[in-house]
Every structure is written in C-alpha cells, then in structure tokens.
Amino acid sequence: MLLQENLLKLRERALREKTAAELAWLQQQKSRIRDKGADDQFPQLNKRRRGVLLRLQQEKVRPRVPSRVAKQSDPVTSITAGAKTSSQLVFTRADF
Q: Does this model's pTM top 0.85?
C-alpha cells in the first residue's frame, strides 16, 4: 500500500511539473506574440491555457488504479485467460 501511495504522489508531482512547464511555454508564446503585435492570437493561447488547467483538474480528480489490479478485475480478461486456444484443445474419438 505504501508503494502505491508513493507512486500516486510521484505521478501527481509529475503532473504538476508538466502543467507548470506547459503554462510557462504558453506564457512565453504570449510574450513573443505581444512583441510581434499579433494580439489576435491571444484567444487561442487563452483557450489552450484553459485546456491545460482543465486537464490538470480532471487528472487530480480521477482515481488511479494500478494496471495490474485493473487487469485482474476485468471480467473479459479473466474469462479469456482461462479459455483454451485451438492448439490446446484435445479431441477424443467420442467427440466425433
């Protein structure tokens, strides 16, 4: 359990760092556009900024389940894991 908590903390930290980097890049683009005098592109940058912040908010809310646990609880995976492939089937004379 402690390992999962540490992994979640690392994931959250990486998400925050990625978001901060994207926001810094967008701010740099905004400054570059302002210097060029192309203020008509500000709405696009603001839209991208809102998207980055919204993605951060959604990722924080969404619970993370380790993939190993998710695969074990998946009913389709558990059914197909127990099924035999055609190369594993053994037929007897009584089957025909």
A: no
